[in-house]
Structure formats: C-alpha cells, structure tokens
Write a structure and sequence with these properties.
Elements (H helix, E strand, L loop, with lengths): L7 E2 L2 E4 L4 H11 L4 E4 L15 E2 L9 H25 L10 E6 H18 L8 E4 H7 L9 E7 L3 E2 L2 H14 L3 E3 L4 E7 L2 E6 L2 E5 L1 E4 L5 H4 L10 E10 L13 E3 L5 E3 L14 H14 L8 E11 L6 E4 L6 E5 L7 H13 L13 H4 L4
Helix pairs in contact: 1-5, 1-8, 2-5, 2-8
Length: 378
C-alpha cells in the first residue's frame, strides 16, 4: 500500500470518463495493465451527452483517406465488441448494422451530396468506398412503413452504417471496466500533470495519482491540459440539439442520419451543428428547424409528441478529423480528440489501446497527428 498521502499508482491513468476514455481503458485492461479513469462530476460540459448513437461510415473522411479507413475498421469491429460487452456484463447495447440512409430533399441536396461523396471516393483512388445512391422508389422499398414526404428524391446508402444505444454503451463499458479490475475515480478533476521521476503525478480534487503513461481523453478539457504537456491540439465546441419522441410502433428498420428509432420505440431527431461557443442551452428556433425537416421528410413524424430535448457541445478539430498523438516533449502523455466517440469505440478498445500499451501505431494514425495543424501553410 502507498504511504499515507502518497499518490495511488497505476500503469496508465486515463483522464475522461465519456466514450473515448472507457473504450481505451477496456483495451488496456485486456492487456494486463493497471488502469484508472479520472472523471469529473456531472456538472461539466460532457461531450458524451450529445451522442446520437450512430455508428456511421458514409461521409466521414473528407480530405483525409486515413479517416475513411479508420471508421471502416471500427464499423467492422463493432459486432464482436458489442457481443463481448453483452457476454461479460449482460448489457445489450443495441448494436445493429442494417445499413444507413442520408435522405435527400430536392435536386440541390442530391447534387451537393454527389459532389461531396464523389470527392471522398476519388481521394481514395476510386476503390473501396461502400456508399451508393438510390432513388425514391428504392428508399420506399427499404422503409415500407414510412410515408415519404413529396420532396424526398433519393438517398445515399452505406451497408456499413448502423447504430447503438449510447447510454447502454457507456454503461456497459464502465461496468466491464470495473468488473475487470479497473479503478474508476469520479469527482477527480485533474488540475495539473507533472513529471515525477519515471512517472507523472496527476493532481486532482480527490487526491493524487501516479502513472508512467497518461491518456488525455477529456473532451473540451484537453484545451487546458494539453498545451503544458506538448499537446497543443486546436479544438472548438460545436453545439448540437437532439429531440426524442414518445414511443411508437417499429417504423424505421435502419438509422437515418437525421433520425433513428431506439430499441424502446422512441425516435431520436437531430442533429444540428451550431457555432455557439460554450453555450449548451437549448435554442427553440433550432428545435423548430429540426422538427420542420423531420415532418418534410416523413410527415407521419408530425403525429408524435416530443418528450425530451437537450443540447450538448461536440469537440471539433479544424478539419473535423480526429487526433491521436503522443507528446514529443513529454513521452508517455497521449492526447485523443474526436467527435466520433460512439463510432470509434470498437477501434479505440481493440486498436488504440494496443498503441498506448506499446504496439506500433496503426497505419491510420500517420494522418492523425497534431503537426498537421501547425505545419499547414499559411
């Protein structure tokens, strides 16, 4: 036991208890390491509150082919990841991969989507991009219980798209983490990290922790914690709104980028993208915009009552692609920034954790450096 007042010691200290931290922590535990998760209270700007639950491939990776590959890898790992969580915890995270749709209203939206996805296809050399365009009749055949609005002319479709229940996913990861011997430390907001011999000491409101490796997966907290440790990762908040309807009969056999039906029968509507700084208050005009588009797309949604709404702040880098980086000035300090914590959970548990444990970095990570922002021509 440590001496009274001495820091608790671990092999890896993970800062952040949202989607990214627990996923990485699970993988580290599977490799036999002693791991703690340092979390804050529930009064902070939790990025995980904004998770819509999509495990989404199409549209990811504009300007960065490696992000396409990384997203594909996670999507393909997800079924086994979900099964392992259910087998060990009894929690069904509701994972399904029936494919997903981005419904398009009018010729302008179709043309924009074709141009956008066409660029992603070409940047990858024109191969292995599992997205196709389908017409209105094909959409109707895929959604037999849905009456499409008259403006729906088609959709983009990917067989790699799916969804989960993000609350059950978070609960399952935390449950498994503690079952497997991990140490979860809530109300341990990290105020500073300092080098102490061969390890780092993390000062928190709940006492000190020591570990030779530290993973900063703290969402917006990375902005303050990273720079003193050589991880100057430019991130900014972007507000998103979500609405949830009352439960209804099954009508959506697959997720759609703007709405999906949960296991319980509710339909989630979203997802906005607003530049509002760190203001996570609900904006009623945005809710009206979301509802209006939903009714325009599927008029029958207008018959359902809204039972809950909220807003949250996702984390975005300048190019909207993730960062996975080890500090050059402070070896053993790792920073992760991404707005796709749900989609990438499987890859973070199965691959990212190996990199932090000492495996060679996966090839995708060559594109996810901090230097891409600071070395860019002005």
């Amino acid at each position: 036991m440590p001496a009274p007042g001495a820091p608790r010691t671990f092999d890896v200290a993970v800062i952040g208890g949202g989607m990214i931290g627990p996923a990485v922590s699970l993988g580290l535990l599977e490799r036999g390491l002693r791991v703690c998760i340092l979390d804050e209270g529930d009064d902070v700007l939790r990025v995980a509150r904004g998770n819509f639950g999509l495990v989404w491939f199409q549209g990811k990776g504009f300007g960065m082919p490696r992000y396409v590959e990384w997203t594909r890898r996670s999507a393909l790992l997800y079924a086994d990841f979900a099964a392992e969580l259910k087998d060990t915890t009894g929690i069904d995270i509701g994972h399904a991969r029936p494919g997903g749709l981005e419904l398009l209203l009018g010729e302008d939206e179709l043309a924009h989507r074709q141009h956008y996805l066409g660029q992603i296809y070409q940047q990858g050399g024109g191969v292995d991009y599992e997205v196709e365009f389908i017409d209105r009749k094909q959409v109707a055949d895929m959604l037999p219980k849905v009456t499409l609005g008259e403006d729906v002319i088609g959709a983009s479709y990917s067989p790699l798209d799916g969804h989960v229940n993000p609350l059950f996913l978070l609960r399952a990861m935390h449950t498994r983490f503690q079952q497997a011997g991990g140490t979860y430390l809530p109300h341990h907001r990290v105020s500073g990290v300092r080098k102490d011999g061969d390890a780092y000491t993390l000062d928190t409101e709940g006492g000190s922790v020591s570990a030779p490796k530290v993973v900063i997966a703290a969402g917006h907290g990375l902005k303050a914690l990273g720079p003193p440790l050589g991880l100057d990762i430019p991130i900014r908040p972007q507000r998103g709104h979500i609405m949830v309807t009352e439960r209804t009969q099954p009508m959506l056999p697959m997720p759609i980028s703007a709405f999906r039906q949960t296991m319980e029968g509710s339909i989630m509507l979203g997802v906005s993208a607003e530049e509002a700084g760190y203001d996570d208050n609900i904006d009623t005009s945005t809710l009206h915009t979301i509802a209006a588009r939903a009714k325009r797309t599927m008029p029958q949604l207008g018959n359902l009552n809204i039972v809950r709404t909220w807003a949250a702040l996702r984390v975005l880098t300048p190019d909207k692609c993730p960062v996975y980086a080890e500090s050059e000035s402070h070896p053993g300090i790792y920073g992760i920034a991404s707005h796709s914590g749900v989609t990438l959970a499987a890859a973070n548990a199965k691959v990212t954790a190996g990199w932090i444990a000492g495996d060679p970095p996966p090839p995708e990570f060559e594109a996810f450096t901090v230097e891409r922002f600071h070395d860019a021509p002005t």
